[in-house]
């Protein structure tokens, strides 16, 4: 039976960094080196160019819109026909649109929940029959693994990024619960919570208005390669949670001990949410622009 890794969000940013590292992995995640790495994203040109640059024939493109249930069903069929062992699942695909809720197309909010929450949970469920082996109890050192990319945005509600922050709270809570469920099979689930990371995410989140993080976030921007490296290491060590970087650990602690309203009050003074002059009907609101780069 072939042992595969699946990486979503593989056409850019953190997902691409994961791909670069995973092809070097040998011998854990279900027992043998990966025979194939399924790299999932929507943009086939970008995905193929990432895969070409890796020069490893085990990496296969799977063009799939994870927010489309029929695409997920096709992926499920592909798994059913090939019946691989899934040694590693990295749920990395994600998106978010910044701005006041009344300033966003309803579709952007729908997509945020569909991709960040629904697709991540459904894909995990779809892969589990190919990870769980009833007759074989993996040890912490050699079992299959799931790495879910959440965000420190999920520690607290975030005015101006409300749907995204709430979706990442979902990812954190879903993944942490799953970690305890799957421990019974020796499958490790690692929830990764980075702060700002240097990828196309910020540009997409602002509709191309700003590729750089602003305010205090600009001083704590992480490198996607280092984040992916730390995440894989945490997964190999069997850790359930990785909060990446000192500033994000401090934020996590603050979110546990400081009243949430007080943090939100201070944040709203430092970074007030901009409200639109007029509120458009959701049917006429513009779709968020995504950069092609
Ligand atoms: N960058 C940050 O500051 C930051 C901080 C904390 C957490 N994160 C999280 O890290 C993860 C990766 O983000 P990133 O920073 O690497 O951003 P990115 O460079 O924008 O990458 C996002 C990836 O998700 C894929 N994707 C988006 N929608 C999809 C869909 N419907 N179906 C399939 N694939 C889809 C994109 O590929 P296609 O467009 O080709 O489909 C792309 O490969 C996300 O979950 C994000 O929330 C990012």
Can you put this structure into words, describing what you see?
Helix 4 runs parallel beside helix 5. This protein has a seven-stranded parallel sheet, sandwiched between helices. The protein is built from nine helices and seven strands; from the N terminus they run βαβαβαβαβαβααβαα. The chain has 293 residues and is an alpha/beta fold. The chain has a single domain, classed as Rossmann fold. The mean pLDDT is 91. The site of NADP nicotinamide-adenine-dinucleotide phosphate has 31 residues, from helix 1 and helix 6.
- Main beta sheet strand tally, sense and closure: 7 strands, parallel
Helix/strand structural class: alpha/beta
The small-molecule ligands in this entry are: NADP nicotinamide-adenine-dinucleotide phosphate
Q: Whole-number average pLDDT?
A: 91
- The CATH architecture can be given as 3-Layer(aba) Sandwich
Distance between the termini: 38 Å
Q: Evaluate the radius of gyration.
A: 19 Å
CATH-wise, what's the superfamily? Answer: NAD(P)-binding Rossmann-like Domain
Counted up, domains total 1
The coarse silhouette is globular
Strand portion: 5-15%
- β-strand number: 7
Strand order of the largest sheet: 3-2-1-4-5-6-7
Order of helices and strands: EHEHEHEHEHEHHEHH
CATH topology: Rossmann fold
**Tally the helices: what do you get?**
9
Class, according to the CATH hierarchy? Alpha Beta
Q: What ranges have pLDDT less than 50 throughout 5 or more consecutive residues?
A: none
Helix proportion range: 40-55%
Task: Report a brief summary of the structure.
By secondary structure, the protein is of the alpha/beta class. It has nine helices and seven strands. The longest helix has 22 residues.
């Amino acid at each position: 039976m072939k042992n595969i890794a699946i990486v979503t969000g593989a056409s850019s940013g953190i997902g691409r960094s994961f791909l670069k590292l995973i092809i070097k992995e040998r011998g854990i995640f279900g027992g043998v080196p990966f025979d194939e790495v399924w790299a999932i994203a929507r943009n086939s040109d970008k995905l193929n160019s990432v895969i070409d640059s890796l020069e490893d024939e085990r990496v296969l493109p799977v063009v799939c819109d994870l927010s489309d249930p029929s695409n997920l069903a096709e992926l499920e069929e592909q798994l059913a026909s090939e019946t691989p062992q899934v040694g590693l699942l990295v749920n990395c695909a994600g998106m978010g649109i910044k701005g006041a809720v009344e300033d966003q197309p309803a579709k952007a909010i729908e997509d945020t929940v569909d991709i960040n929450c629904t697709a991540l949970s459904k894909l995990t469920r779809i892969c589990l029959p190919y990870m769980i082996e009833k007759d074989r109890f993996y040890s912490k050192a050699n079992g299959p693994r799931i790495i879910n990319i959440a965000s420190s945005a999920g520690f607290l509600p975030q005015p101006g990024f409300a749907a995204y922050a709430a979706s990442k709270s979902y990812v954190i809570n879903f993944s942490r619960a799953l970690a305890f469920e799957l421990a019974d099979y020796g499958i490790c689930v690692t929830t990764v919570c980075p702060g700002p990371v240097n990828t196309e995410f910020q540009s997409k989140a602002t509709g191309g208005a700003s590729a750089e993080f602003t305010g205090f976030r600009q001083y704590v921007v992480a490198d996607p390669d280092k984040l992916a490296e730390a995440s894989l290491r945490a997964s190999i060590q069997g850790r359930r949670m990785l909060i990446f970087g000192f500033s994000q650990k401090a934020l996590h602690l603050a979110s546990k001990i400081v009243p949430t309203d007080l943090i939100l009050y201070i944040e709203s003074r430092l970074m007030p949410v901009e409200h639109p002059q007029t509120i458009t009907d959701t049917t006429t609101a513009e779709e968020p622009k995504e950069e092609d780069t």
